[in-house]
Design a protein that fits this description.
single chain; about 130 residues; mainly beta; 7 strands
């Protein structure tokens, strides 16, 4: 985990917002065809981040589906600020194309604020 990701997570933990056992951080490992697929069960009251380094100007087609409404965002950090190229609350699916503004670690993140676990699947494809 890079330091810029560790600090916000540490601050969240210090503030009591999230227990360390309730987090899931996944690194993007592109296939030779430029694809990444991740399927998981997002437990109730937990979150998952799928992160990877992208070059400025990169274009990534993304799509996800979930069995329950989740809060979703794509974000990256610029100094102390967090930028959100996409942000939606209480959605079971969404798709789009991320155009990386700057060379940076970009994260797709979901939060399950429900009392039940939710199956979900993410698909990323480099253009």
């Amino acid at each position: 985990m890079k330091i810029r990701h560790a600090l916000p997570l540490f601050l969240s933990l210090a503030a009591g917002a999230v227990d360390a056992a309730e987090t899931d951080l996944v690194s993007i490992n592109w296939s030779p065809e430029g694809r990444f697929v991740h399927e998981t069960t997002l437990l109730a009251s937990r979150f998952i981040e799928v992160c990877g380094q992208l070059a400025a100007g990169s274009r990534i087609d993304w799509a996800f589906e979930a069995a329950a409404p989740l809060n979703f965002n794509i974000h990256f950090h610029e100094g102390k600020q967090v930028r959100f190229p996409a942000k939606r609350d209480q959605v079971t699916k969404a798709d789009g194309t991320l155009r990386a503004e700057v060379a940076q670690d970009y994260c797709w993140m979901w939060t399950n604020k429900t009392a039940a676990d939710a199956q979900m699947k993410l698909t990323l494809k480099r253009q």
